[in-house]
Every structure is written in structure tokens, then in C-alpha cells.
Amino acid sequence: xxxxxxxxxIETGNHHDLEILLRNSPHLLRENTSHHISPLLLAxxxxxxxxxxxxLGHLTTITIHEAAAIGLATHVEAMLKQKPEVxxxxxxxxxxxxxxxxxxxxxxxxxxxxxxKADPNIPSQNGYQxxxxxxxxxxxxxxxxxxxxxxxxxxxxxxxxxxTPLHLAAQQGNIDLxxxxxxxxxxxxxxxxxxxxxxxxxMEKGHKEIAxxxxxx
Length: 217
Prior knowledge:
By secondary structure, the chain is mostly helical. It has 14 helices and no strands. It has helices spanning 2-12, 15-24, 39-45, 49-56, 64-70, 73-82, 97-103, 107-115, 132-138, 142-150, 165-172, 175-183, 198-204, 208-216. Helix 2 (15-24) runs parallel beside helix 4 (49-56) and helix 3 (39-45) packs antiparallel against helix 4. The chain starts with a helix and ends with a helix.
């Protein structure tokens, strides 16, 4: 019952009752939630800042994945000094610290991880084959996308449904990233699992000029 309450308080952002619960049952933070992630990571995915602060007040240690999600670059750096091998460690839900930092748009952590030689080409281990570059483009984090490309991210990597980074940039009409992807060898002919090219996806979203450029390229 307490575990259920914990999740409910996290999801609703009820940090006041969460504080009372954790004072009496701090052990709840050491158990994974029904989403197969820690309570702290769950709070990050729900974007509940006050809940994150409340949970942090009851923890003595956090994982590199949690630090990456919150954007605690100094913590990440300290962890890597102590245990360099955790740099590409896969979380319980299938993501590397780099993937998680990318998902939450934490530029500083991404920059640090890449400087420490985190691998930008490890896909998620959860059946969806999501790469950090796909995540950055989906979140429209242009700075992170550029950092990943500079660090050697595979421009033509395919995730679930045979989607490439170029497909995502074309759908968004992101001409800046489209140019960078093309300059780095993006394949315009690759089709999604439904048979659509980047040009066709751009047209479908109303980006006519981009669609024409991609069709001619």
C-alpha cells in the first residue's frame, strides 16, 4: 500500500504528503516502482521538480542515471572519477547515462559524458532500439544533436519502425539539422517500415520546400 501511495504522490506531484510518507518509510526509495525504475527517476519522467527535491532530501546516494536525469554534472563527474566503467552502464529500463541526459535535455551532462568518451551509438535495450541522436531530435534539442553528431553518432542508425535521424528532422522541418545530417552522409533513400522517405514525411507535415529539396538531393 505504501509503495502505491509513493507512486501516486510522485505522479500527482504531492510533495507534502510524500515528505510525511518518506519520514516514516524511507526504505521505499530503495525499491523500484511498478515502472521498473527508481522513485527518483519516475519523478524525473513526470517532471515534478518539488517531488525530486523531496526525494533527494531522503537519499544518501544516487545512481549515475539519476544524476544524468536531474542534470547534476558535478555528481556525474565525481562518479566517473570513482568508477569510470559506469559511463555506458545500462539502466534497469534500458538506457545509458548519455541517453537519459539527452532525453531530459541536460546539455552540460551530455557535454561531460561525450568528453569522457561515452559511446553515442548504444541504442536502448528495451525493444525500441532508440539511439541518443534520435532522442535529441525528437526532443528538438538542437545543441545536443550537434554535439552527438560531432562525437561520431551514426547518422543512418535506424530505430523502431526503421526511422532514421533524417526522418525525424524532416518531419519537424528542421532545416538546420537536415543540412548537418546531409553533410555528414545521411541517406535520403531510406524508407520507414511504412515505406516513407524523409522527403515524403516532410511533405506529409506540410514542409513543402524541404520535401522538394530532399527529393532533389
